[in-house]
Amino acid sequence: MTINRRTLLQGTAALAGTLALPRLASAEGVLKIGQVNASPAADIGWAKQHALGIEAIKAEFGDRVEVTVVDNTFLPQDAERVFREMAATGHGLIFGTSFSLGAPMQKVAPRFPDVAWEHCSGIVHLDNLATFEAKYYEGMYVAGVAAGHMTKTGKLGFIGGFPIPDIVGPGNAFLLGAQSVNPEITCNAVFLNSWFDPGKEKEAASALIAQGADVLLGMTDTGVAVQTAQEKGVFSVGYASDLISFGPDSQLTSVVLDWSKDYVGAARAVLDGTWETESAWDGLAAGVVTMAPFHEAIPAEVRAELEALVVAVGSGEVQPYAGPISDNAGNEIVPAGEVLSDGDVRGIDWLTAGMIGTLG
Amino acid sequence: MSELAISIFTGTLIAATPLLLAALGELVVEKSGVLNLGIEGMMLIGAAAGFLVAVQGGGLLPAFAVAALAGAVAAALFGVLTLLFLTNQYAAGLALAIFGSGVSATLGVGFGSQPIEALAPLNLGPLADLPLLGPLLFRFDIMVYLGLALVPVTWWWLNRSRAGLVLRVVGEAPGNAHALGYNVLRIRFLAILWGGALAGLAGGYLSLAYTAIWVENMTAGRGWIALSLVVFATWRPFRVLAGAVLFGGVTILQLHGQILGLPVPSEALSAAPYVATILVLVVISQNRARMALDVPLSLGKPFRARD
């Protein structure tokens, strides 16, 4: 309850901020761009990578754009007001950076047909509402191959925030990558049912290591898994940002999200008058997903193999979800010779064979 | 297997430590007749302030001192509002919780990507090398031992010392204490400061020892759990310990359960610590007559000296 109250207060304060800001300056011919974030501003993780997208726009267009950012807009009713205010105060391009902002965006966008709306990790398109998303699983597959080479126990550990497709899918790809090295490798999965609980994440990481996992992947928004791996002398894979500062000896690589192409592309299209609603879903090839430098603990020839794999996965030559794939209950999901369809990738609700855990 | 058991046991005590510190502080506050709902906020302020000192190279012990101090300063604010200005304690406590989360977020801006060196285990020399007992009992950091030591100390101080008796009288019948010449407000204020310092220390434990990082709202509700532990433990220190260990233990066990692939939804397992703690503490608090004796009679009621 209190958290809601708090976010409500912050949302209201943030709203007051948006009301005041646009009146300060609005020169002719300047594109006003808005960004609404559900989470607080952070120094690493998901929110940070989206802040970098805005930085990229500023660097690219300088005085031609004017940016308003509103953080901590978690409640849909707050978000709706913030979006409406932004549109009403002359913002021509508005980004929403969380799945949960979808409903308010879909509600407000039709009332402002001249505004370009971009929703990250959204699924619904409208005439003026576009979506963009990254193929995390491509990077996770490559990271899994690295993990497969480096594990000694043959057990990997996966810590997810919630059992949703955006988390479960990349987790599966991670294990499939490792199994391409050694089919016997298994992965224990823990879901915290929370995005921000570093203490619980630490407990989960310690528990995984105690049960024999020696490469950890944490898909939450903190550096705790990488840090715990460092402390206990095992390896880890980072997510969203490069987390090497948390585990100089432990982080094999990190699946880093770089949204700048989506942000700059959308801003340029709006400035040029060519913006159209589309669904961007890019990965390694477009540089939306990048790999942090492979750790020197990985043998040089494996590192070369991984660099080549980045290219091969990016080009589609290697398909992480190529059959045969069955789930961990033994049901066949993808027959041999076929590849999981894009739609099915985005709706993954099964754990691949070798995953130990339940989705509830 | 024995290594796994050791890991579960030690993990439990470590997970219980922040709960224990915060709850023991709140217990003393409530025994003085004041209900401070703002533990979560004080913990966050302690966590952020301590981390700031450590990340700037101030050393870990000063960092813990600053964490405790910051918690006490936040508590002092609550004390002034409720004791001097007779603000409603419930409202002021809730405000403190929200205020602390905002203040700590502001303090911590820019430090989220900087890890620090975590508090190392205490060097207990040959004791740590004992077979079985060494890894089981003698490889914790100093704060774990401090938390455990505070349990009997708090019990003894409340029940066997003169100062503790005075504090309890203030919590039961502030009018009588006042008539006997005790300064009710001063005693309550000191209790509030003590509670704040321990909450700050508990927060500092999270950001300096448990996970040596700063993340906004990193206490993730532990302040509220500590608060309810005090009530469920019927204001008795050893039951607070039992509750904290139980909560920490079931948290760790449910994670191990998930890792082993128990065919139970992770959401249900995540709820297990709350259910187990409530159940056990309710069962051991069955004796209503005894329980009535434990509740500080004037809990949450403001006191104004008539002169």
Automatic annotation (TrEMBL), chain A:
Transmembrane segments: none annotated. Pfam families: Bmp. InterPro entries: ABC-Purine-Binding (IPR052910), PnrA-like (IPR003760), TAT_signal (IPR006311). The keyword Signal applies. It comes from the Bacteria. The keyword Ribonucleoprotein does not apply. Residues 33-292 form the ABC transporter substrate-binding protein PnrA-like domain. PROSITE patterns: TAT. GO terms for cellular component: plasma membrane. Keywords: Signal. This is BMP family ABC transporter substrate-binding protein.
From TrEMBL, chain B:
It holds the Pfam family BPD_transp_2. It is found in: Cell membrane. The chain crosses the membrane at residues 6-25, 37-55, 61-86, 93-116, 136-158, 189-213, 219-235, 240-262, 268-284. One of its GO terms (molecular function) is transmembrane transporter activity. It is a multi-pass membrane protein. Keywords: Cell membrane, Membrane, Transmembrane, Transmembrane helix. One of its GO terms (cellular component) is plasma membrane. The keyword Metal-binding does not apply. PANTHER family: ABC TRANSPORTER PERMEASE PROTEIN (PTHR43370:SF2), SUGAR ABC TRANSPORTER INTEGRAL MEMBRANE PROTEIN-RELATED (PTHR43370). This is ABC transporter permease.
